[in-house]
Amino acid sequence: MSQHATPDPDDVTVLFVEDDALVAQMYRLKLELDGYSVDIAGDGLIALEKARTLHPDIIFLDIRLPKLDGLSVLEALRADPTTEHIPVVILSNWNEKELVERGAKLGALDHMIKSQTTPARLSQRLADWLRK
């Protein structure tokens, strides 16, 4: 996929990292209705495994996760040459300044607050993030 072209949703694979299955399904449903292919990881270790095997086009990452927290996942993704280039957007209800700053230092494209981000808004922003 070209870095500057508008991505075709049919060609985009999303990894959604969220431990609350109902929340994950809510976002997944909207993204899939909009044509994106979505895989879900329910904890940090599974997220790393899936990122390395699926090579998604973008990752939506919660911070509070079982087994390995989201910022540790992001750090591991950036340290691995096979995943360091994958765009990551943090989607969490945790928005303390230190967490937002640490995510930015680790290369997160954005930090969205889950309670303020509808599935439709997330889907609308997806193309913009992929162009970055």
Task: Give your account of this protein's structure.
It is built from 5 helices and 5 strands. It has a single domain (10-131), classed as Rossmann fold (3-Layer(aba) Sandwich). Strands 2-1-3-4-5 form a 5-stranded parallel sheet, with helices on both faces. By secondary structure, the chain is α/β, with parallel strands linked by helices. It has helices at residues 21-33, 44-54, 70-79, 97-105, 119-131; strands spanning 13-17, 37-41, 58-61, 88-92, 110-113. Strand 1, helix 1 (21-33) and strand 2 form a beta-alpha-beta unit. The mean pLDDT is 92. The longest helix is centred in the N-terminal third of the chain and has 13 residues, at 21-33. Helix content is 42%, strand content 17%.
CATH fold name, please? Rossmann fold
The number of distinct structural domains comes to: 1
The secondary-structure class comes to: alpha/beta
In helices, the fraction of residues equals 40-55%
Going across the biggest sheet, name each strand in turn: 2-1-3-4-5
CATH superfamily: Response regulator
| Order of helix and strand elements from N to C terminus | EHEHEHEHEH
Task: Give the amount of beta strand, in percent.
Answer: 15-25%
Low-pLDDT parts are none
Query: Rg to the nearest angstrom?
Result: 13 Å
- Which architecture per CATH? 3-Layer(aba) Sandwich
Counting DSSP E segments of at least 2 residues, the number of strands comes to 5
CATH class: Alpha Beta
